[in-house]
């Protein structure tokens, strides 16, 4: 079992920045690829970013490329999502997720992840 707890969400003006954190406990954190997803009201959960176990390879949705950065600290069992130049359309509940076995093609697919956090709200005002 892996427990994931997100933090760092909040209310920010357009153009501002936030840094989300996801702390993991349980089985070996470095054994898991990690992803960030988000879900806005009335919409499906969508992929935001993902990172391989070692942190050497990252993936991003086109909508956040150049603005968001995913990173991980395996010594601290934590994955981060640095979000810059936020836009109102980034408003959503942000979830982190862990996948033990996942292909590159599966990184953006919610069903490929084994564990999920409870989510943290990000609201961007215009």
Query: Which structural class should the secondary elements be placed in?
Result: mainly beta
Distance between the termini: 40 Å
Query: What's the total number of strands?
Result: 11
State the low-pLDDT regions, or none. Answer: none
From N to C, what is the helix and strand string? Answer: EEEEEEEEEEE
Average pLDDT number: 96
Range of helix content: under 10%
Total helical segments: 0
Radius of gyration: 13 Å
Strand content: over 45%
- Please describe the biggest sheet, giving its number of strands, its sense, and whether it closes into a barrel: 7 strands, mixed
Shape: globular
Give me the secondary-structure topology.
Blueprint: E1 2-7, E2 10-13, E3 18-26, E4 33-39, E5 46-51, E6 58-60, E7 68-73, E8 78-83, E9 92-99, E10 115-116, E11 120-125
Parallel strand pairs: 2-11
Antiparallel strand pairs: 1-3, 3-8, 4-5, 4-9, 5-6, 7-8, 9-10, 9-11
Please describe the structure with a list of short key phrases separated by commas or semicolons.
126 residues; seven-stranded mixed sheet; four-stranded antiparallel sheet; 0% helix
General description of the model:
0% of the residues lie in helices and 50% in strands. It is mainly β. A hairpin with a 4-residue loop joins strand 7 and strand 8. The chain is globular. The N and C termini lie far apart (40 Å). The relative contact order is 0.31. The mean pLDDT is 96.
Short description:
This protein has no helices and 11 strands. The chain is mainly beta. The strands form 2 sheets. Strands 2, 4, 5, 6, 9, 10 and 11 form a 7-stranded mixed β-sheet that branches. The chain has a 4-stranded antiparallel β-sheet with strand order 1-3-8-7, with no helix packed on it.
């Amino acid at each position: 079992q892996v427990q994931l707890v997100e933090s760092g969400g909040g209310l920010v003006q357009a153009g501002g920045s936030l840094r989300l954190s996801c702390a993991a406990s349980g089985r070996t954190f470095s054994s898991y690829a990690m992803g960030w997803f988000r879900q806005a009201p009335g919409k499906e959960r969508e992929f935001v970013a993902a990172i391989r176990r070692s942190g050497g390879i990252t993936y991003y949705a086109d909508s956040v490329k150049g603005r968001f950065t995913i990173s991980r600290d395996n010594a601290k069992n934590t994955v981060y999502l640095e979000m810059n130049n936020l836009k109102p359309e980034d408003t959503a509940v942000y979830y982190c997720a862990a996948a033990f076995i996942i292909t590159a093609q599966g990184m953006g697919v919610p069903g490929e992840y084994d564990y999920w956090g409870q989510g943290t709200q990000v609201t961007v005002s215009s």
